[in-house]
Hints:
Blueprint: H1 10-17, H2 21-28, H3 36-49, H4 55-62, E1 67-72, H5 76-79, H6 83-98, E2 102-107, H7 111-122, E3 128-132, H8 140-147, E4 151-154, E5 167-171, H9 173-186, E6 192-195, H10 202-215, E7 223-224, H11 230-243, E8 249-252, H12 255-267, E9 277-282, H13 285-288, E10 296-299, H14 302-318, E11 331-335, E12 338-340
Parallel strand pairs: 1-2, 1-3, 3-4, 4-5, 5-11, 6-7, 6-8, 8-9, 9-10
Antiparallel strand pairs: 10-12
Helix pairs in contact: 1-2, 1-3, 2-3, 6-14, 7-8, 9-10, 11-12
Amino acid sequence: MTDTAPRPTLEAVAARAGVSRATVSRVVNGGNGVRDTLVERVRAAVEELGYVPNQAARSLVTRRHDAVAVVVAEPETRVFADPFFALQLRGISKELAAHDNQLVLLLTEGRDDHARVGRYLAGGHVDGALVFSLHLDDPLPELIQRAKLPTVFGGRPGWSGDRRGVVYVDSDNRGGARDAVRHLAGLGRTRIAHLTGALDQTSAVDRLDGYRDVMGDADPRLVVEADFTPSGGERAMRRLLDRCPDVDAVFAANDLTAAGALRVLRETGRRVPDDVAVIGFDDMLPVAEQTDPPLTTVRQDIERMGRLMARLLMRDLDRGASPEDDAGTPAGVVLPTTLVRRASA
Length: 345
């Protein structure tokens, strides 16, 4: 066993700086009313002694925990396999770190997890929450509303009930889908199919609506439901070829779905893009640049979405906003999308 030096105390910092304990407390906890010369003396003493504020005591003064819950309404097997979540979490983490806040990751596997997450959010452990990948029947919005916790959602809200004060960040899913399908039509393709995402999520619904905006009353057999995963894309592509073997273009709801579709097209001897042109959605570079051929896709800035979600939450926390402060319609930020052309279409 080795002896460890005692941690420097607030009193030790006060003695070294030649000020009162109360002055040190105001400086280290971000309070006002301390002259600049004293602030510098306190900070120099903190640095010299290696003083680390006690978080519990600091919370009593600031009423902040400097921690934010990031709730992903998906099981861990999905979250850690899909690069979309890694990009969004990276953006969130960078922004929270810039505000000296900790990220607390919460995942939901089933109904029991929803109750657990709801209890945690209501328990006063975090200052706010960032929530994304919600499904239409998800109880989380109601649980968060009960907790009265400042929250920013990733994606357009699609749940029923009170949406007053809802803040969200999304991409122009419908407009991006229209751009993709118009591009395929501009290539002279006439049998353009859509492999959807999970239709209990608003992003998938919006992309389907964008497809229909362009295709109008196209053959309904050209729309096949998938689930945003490579295996779901494979299954949907096989069903599509069984239904419509003459398909000459595919708009997939995301890059992973497109990657699964490309594998099936290759297995069945169809050349891309000569026989079937393929477009995805997301522009996740680990996927889009490594498919065969490289994937034409609709780019949304996923990392920027995460950073903006965190920035909006920090803004509301800094100004002391609560969910009841804003009445009226949801406050949504919708980021633009861009078609990125590669070899698949």
